[in-house]
């Protein structure tokens, strides 16, 4: 492993090298008798689903750990271990996405067909999701078994997986076909779905991994968890906003929250701000596939000045998060939290 204290592209290259090492270990796991065929299948499945995203969650373990070490040069082992934990989060993400896409009957993901849509894959993808999930404890066992924080790592991944699956459940049961009822959508429901479905695994777990590696006790960092959860909620509100108002070229996807009857921050705000007449428009046209219906909802969003409402929310959230971060006693932890906030504030994609 070469020096990892260089530029972002170096970081990314080194991070991908660790992926190759972990993949090769998993494809030679002695707990299973491999054949060429099974090895080829798993390798293709991993390459298709694990390294394809932006890798933000994984890379932020290394970033956070570096900041916690306050400028000390990391050893090769530290770099490898932080990268391995980063990859465990990317594996967790891949597992969620493979199964999510089946549940949502989606077509594309990261600009290519969803894994279950690939010829000859189909419902084998459900079992592939289970395999992805089971790779995480294999990686942890191989590289962290002798570490004092091993049990804490296992607990952390198990708990976050449970929270994410439970968040997904609230989301799914809220949008059951034939029970579409806008009146049950509220800011508190939106917050609960986002907190559990997104914030824990996207914001909390990368920092929690870095804290454990730095021999910190997570019970002493409840405040850090709370700030990161708030950041995750702010991130999802941005996502909801960009789904409707973002440039599809920039965000890399065409938003369908309106058609999909999503409990989006925008629709919740619209319900809060609208008069009876506008409420009727929302109830009549939200969650319909037709372009004319979607256009009516977007026109209503503009009428209610939701872009302005969002900008106000964005600056209020930023201010609140900045104040919470400054109140943290540790400068190193402050640096980690500031780095996260800096990456997402006023993002366009």
TrEMBL record:
GO terms for cellular component: cytoplasm. The keyword Signal does not apply. Keywords: Isoprene biosynthesis, Magnesium, Metal-binding, Transferase. Its cofactor is Mg(2+). One of its GO terms (biological process) is farnesyl diphosphate biosynthetic process. GO terms for molecular function: (2E,6E)-farnesyl diphosphate synthase activity; dimethylallyltranstransferase activity; metal ion binding. The keyword Transferase applies. Belongs to the FPP/GGPP synthase family. This is Farnesyl pyrophosphate synthase 1.
